[in-house]
Amino acid sequence: MRTPTHATHAMVATSDPHAARAGKQIFAAGGNAVDAAIATAAALTVSEATSNGIGADAFAIVRVNGTLYGLTSSGKSPTGLTYEAFSESGKVPRFGFKAVTVPGAVKLWKTLHARFGKLPFEDLFRPAIQLADDGFKLADTVKHNVLRAKDIYTTHLKDPIFEPFLKTFFDQDVESLYRLSDHAKTLKIIAKDPDSFYRGALMQTMVQHMQDAGGYLREADFLAHEAQWQTPLAQDAFGATLYELPPNGQGIIALKALSIFQHVKESLHGEVESLKQAFVAGKKRMHGMMSEQDIHAYLDADHSKRLAAQIGDHAEDFEDPFDEDHGTVYLATADDTMEVSLIQSNYMGYGSGIVVPGTGIALQNRGAGFLLKEHPNQYAPGKRPYHTLMPGFMKTSEGIGPLGVMGGFMQPQGHYQVFLNHVKESMNIQAALDAPRYYYDKGLKVDVEADFHPDDIKALKKAGHDVHVTDQVGLFGRGQIILKTKDGLLGATEKRCDGTIETL
Question: pTM for the whole thing?
Answer without folding.
Answer: 0.97
